[in-house]
TrEMBL record:
The active site is at E123. Pathway: Secondary metabolite metabolism; methylglyoxal degradation; (R)-lactate from methylglyoxal: step 1/2. Signal peptide: none annotated. It is an enzyme of class 4 (lyase). Coiled coil: none annotated. Belongs to the glyoxalase I family. Binds 1 zinc ion per subunit. In the homodimer, two zinc ions are bound between subunits. Residues 2-127 form the VOC domain. It comes from Inmirania thermothiophila. GO terms for molecular function: lactoylglutathione lyase activity; metal ion binding. This is lactoylglutathione lyase.
Length: 128
């Protein structure tokens, strides 16, 4: 068994792709429209992941601009080289962290949280 991807639904596909690629450094791997089902899928790979590694799948259901996230969803977590560098990219776009930067509960690792354009929480852990 191997981990393939996580799928999240987004309300504005291009806004989300721009956030994940320009702010977090992901690479768009593939994109496909499904006119019969009225949706588009975009797969992104996090920086540092090898080809064939786990991906993030953005699903845009045509005409749906917003989703209720519910209270069961937690967050995605990504290892990053520099939380400060991501903070600079966020602030350059008029955004900021939703929490932090700070330290993990054991105090050993720098961490921060950011929300993507649809409100999904993303934990950033430096140097893991």
């Amino acid at each position: 068994m191997r981990y393939l991807h996580t799928m999240i639904r987004v309300g504005d596909l291009e806004r989300s792709v721009k956030f994940y690629t320009e702010v977090l450094g992901f690479k768009e791997v593939r994109r496909r429209d499904y006119p019969e089902g009225k949706f588009t899928l975009v797969f992104l790979r996090a920086p540092g992941e090898a080809e064939g590694g786990p991906e993030l799948e953005l699903t845009y259901n045509w005409g749906v601009e917003r989703y209720e996230l519910g209270n069961g969803y937690g967050h995605m977590a990504f290892a990053v080289d520099s939380i400060d560098a991501i903070g600079e990219r966020l602030r350059a776009r008029g955004l900021d962290f939703s929490w932090g930067p700070g330290r993990t509960p054991d105090g050993r690792t720098a961490m921060a949280f950011v929300k993507d354009p649809d409100g999904y929480a993303i934990e950033l852990l430096e140097g893991r």
